[in-house]
Design a protein that fits this description.
28% strand; alpha/beta; globular; 21 strands; 35% helix
């Protein structure tokens, strides 16, 4: 049986006086919401569980364009395994293998080379490709319904006799009841506000500029490049031969200046950011020399290959866009049968490319805890299972988010000592394999 998709919730549901009941309601039909619905639908434990996904945007028939979208994600090997399990990966038709990532700074040419196992590489995939792939699976699921063009207006918690029935009212006043409400509605989450959980956040006072760029080189293009600069990191992610995706973090004032440039001048600024010679810094030079001497005695030799970033030939017309960057973390991921996943619960700087992978890890974690709870005889969304989800998620998310935030502040700091420390990190991480392995495992 195929899923019935309601393109507009105003059609016939408004005439129903009694609220419709769904075991699970998911708010948000983006990358995380669609994948969450798919994960539940594919789990045999939930074969009799009715799932409603509410998405505010209208239904769009996806058609792959010749040009790439400027919104892409770096998908970790563990996430790829999850997609394969759900049947999502087979639906993704356009992607690029990322064999390694070279990371360096602006005070020296020392760099870290994060290599992926050839059998388990990372991939660069357009966000729309992932969403469409998940929608294809949800459309085939008999226990998933999707409401497009619908927005939640109000949520009343614990309205049932048993205290575990939440009522959702849409903008057209149609009503839905559920035992488990999942917030996957992004950084400005309405569901998080309904929960009333404390939310720690700050503005980085930066913009992330994204674009699709054409390279002068026509090699296989399987390397990602990231350079830490005083105003923020710049990353070049491979899409195919001669084409890459740009993510460039800049201060608000610098970003506004860059966005006003003609495209050819924009490209010049981009190449300058990637290829400029290391800045001279006396303290950093002394620390550099000492650390290299130390590593020469106690550590293995590193930096045997020269660092040669790609040269940008041009930018794809009308592909340049920008968005503000911020940090956010919810102190509580669940409350009374309401639970948060993805950006609804946490938001990080894009410098490490881990934001979406953290969200996909949330999904795997939540699905596993809910499944175990039902298998053990507890009700779907029991507080014990949601607590287990929160504990495991925060145990992983908080250290990773703290590390990403620290990287941002270290490499954008005006403090000379911090700058020197940040540069030495490239040397020690590349030279000390155990440290490099730990950092790679933390990120994936």
């Amino acid at each position: 049986m195929t899923t019935k998709i309601f393109l507009n919730s105003r059609c016939s549901l408004t005439s129903v006086a009694k609220p419709s009941f769904f075991n699970v309601i998911i708010s948000g039909g983006g990358l995380i919401g669609q994948t969450m619905a798919c994960a539940l639908a594919k789990n045999p434990v939930f074969k009799n569980t009715n799932i409603l996904l509410i998405e505010s945007s209208s239904k769009k028939d996806y058609a792959q364009k010749d040009s790439y979208s400027n919104r892409v994600s770096s998908i970790a090997p563990t996430t790829i395994e999850f997609f394969e399990k759900l049947g999502i990966w087979k639906n993704i038709k356009r992607y690029q293998v990322m064999k390694d990532m070279k990371v360096w700074g602006y005070l020296s040419k020392d760099y870290i080379n994060f290599e992926h196992d050839s059998n388990n590489p990372a991939y660069i995939v357009e966000n729309d490709e992932i969403i469409n792939a998940a929608v294809m699976e949800n459309t085939k699921a008999s226990n998933v319904k999707i409401l497009y063009g619908s927005t939640i207006k109000d949520v009343t918690l614990n309205v049932g006799k048993r205290g575990r029935n939440h009522q959702i009212k849409l903008v057209d006043d149609s009503l839905y009841d559920t035992n488990l409400l999942i917030g996957a509605d992004g950084a400005n989450s309405f569901i998080r506000n309904v929960m009333g959980s404390d939310y720690i956040n700050w503005n980085y006072k930066q913009f992330g500029i994204v674009a699709t760029v054409l390279l002068s080189e026509s090699n296989e293009n399987n390397t990602a490049w990231q350079r830490f600069l005083p105003d923020g990191p710049i990353a070049i992610l491979p899409l195919e031969k001669g084409i890459s995706s740009l993510v460039w973090s800049l201060t608000e004032s610098k970003a506004k200046q860059i966005l006003k440039l003609p495209e050819e001048v924009f490209v010049d600024a981009l190449n300058e950011a990637l290829h400029s010679e290391p800045q001279k810094n006396e303290v950093a030079a002394i620390v550099n020399s000492c650390s290299k001497s130390l590593l020469g005695v106690f550590g293995p030799k590193s930096f045997s290959q020269p660092l040669i970033p790609p040269h940008i030939k041009s930018v794809v017309p009308k592909s340049i866009a920008a968005f503000p960057l911020s940090f956010g973390h919810c102190s509580q991921y669940y409350k009374d049968g309401v639970v948060l996943i993805g950006d609804s619960a946490h938001k990080v700087h894009p410098l490490a490319g881990q934001g979406v992978n953290i969200g996909f890890r949330d999904i795997q974690n939540l699905e596993a805890k809910l499944s175990q709870g039902v298998s053990d005889g507890r009700e779907l969304g029991d507080a014990m299972d949601l607590k287990h989800y929160e504990t495991e998620a925060q145990r992983h998310n908080i250290p990773l988010m703290a590390a990403i935030d620290a990287l941002h502040w270290i490499y954008t700091s005006d403090n000379t000592i911090l700058k020197a420390f940040g540069n030495v990190c490239f040397q020690f991480t590349e030279s000390m394999r155990p440290l490099k392995t730990v950092m790679k495992q933390l990120a994936t």
